[in-house]
């Protein structure tokens, strides 16, 4: 699996439709200070479901939408589309290419898509679990993050190894099942109470 293309529209400094085509091997994005290099990384994190505005270097989610400049009016929504090569089927979808997209409007409306079909944020999280590319995975290492990882507590560092070893999906399913079990046990308890009342 590798990132083939990033399409940005109205995202931060990318007012107009901008397409970044990425080949296999090493790609470097270079440019003067303030030209938008970090905004590209923010776009990748954002489309993968980043919800923390602080992590996106803003103060509110609306800050991801192009706010206007001397030459261009502000945009009403931001959209980012990632295209991933999936010929090795690392993503559990029967497609050799997978598109992930997120759109956010000024009125707060938010949409996510997998291969142009609208989906939930949860679906995006689940799709990328154990691939190393989730929003909190290790594929994106920000400035100062290496120090942070080295200085983190063993329990925090363990999360990285769990993602790499591919057990996050199962841990998440286990948690869902435990919740369902608890709910079922409560329902059973209620049924038993009703039976006692009737008898
Ligand atoms: P450096 O090399 O200094 O780290 P950079 O190339 O990584 O810089 P970014 O931090 O990606 O630059 O981009 C900062 C630019 O993006 C600033 O000029 C800022 O005004 C612009 N910007 C951020 N959010 C928006 C927005 N919502 N609308 C318009 N421009 C924005």
Automatic annotation (TrEMBL):
Residue numbers binding ATP: 32-39
Superkingdom of the organism of origin: Bacteria
Subcellular location: Cytoplasm
Domains: entry comment: Contains large globular domains required for ATP hydrolysis at each terminus and a third globular domain forming a flexible hinge near the middle of the molecule. These domains are separated by coiled-coil structures.
Oligomer status and interactors: Homodimer.
Physiological role: Required for chromosome condensation and partitioning.
Family: Belongs to the SMC family.
Protein name, as recorded: Chromosome partition protein Smc
Primary gene name: smc
Span within the parent record: 1 to 199 of 1181
């Amino acid at each position: 699996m590798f990132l083939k293309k990033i399409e940005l529209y109205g995202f931060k400094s990318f007012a107009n439709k901008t397409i970044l085509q990425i080949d296999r091997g090493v790609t470097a994005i270079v440019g003067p200070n303030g030209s938008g290099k970090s905004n590209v990384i923010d776009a990748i994190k954002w489309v993968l479901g980043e919800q923390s505005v602080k992590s996106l270097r803003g103060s509110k989610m609306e800050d991801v939408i192009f706010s206007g400049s001397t030459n261009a009016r502000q945009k009403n929504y931001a959209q980012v589309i990632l295209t991933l090569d999936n010929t090795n089927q690392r993503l559990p979808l029967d497609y050799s290419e997978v598109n992930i997209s997120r759109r956010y409007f000024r009125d707060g409306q938010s949409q996510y898509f997998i291969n142009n079909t609208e989906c939930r944020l949860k679906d995006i999280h689940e799709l990328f679990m154990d691939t190393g590319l989730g929003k909190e995975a290790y594929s994106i290492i920000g400035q100062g993050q290496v120090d942070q990882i080295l200085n983190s507590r063993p329990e925090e560092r363990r999360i990285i190894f769990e993602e790499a070893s591919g057990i996050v999906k199962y841990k998440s399913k286990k948690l869902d099942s435990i919740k369902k079990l608890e709910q079922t046990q409560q329902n059973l308890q209620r049924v038993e109470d009703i039976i006692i009342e009737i008898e």
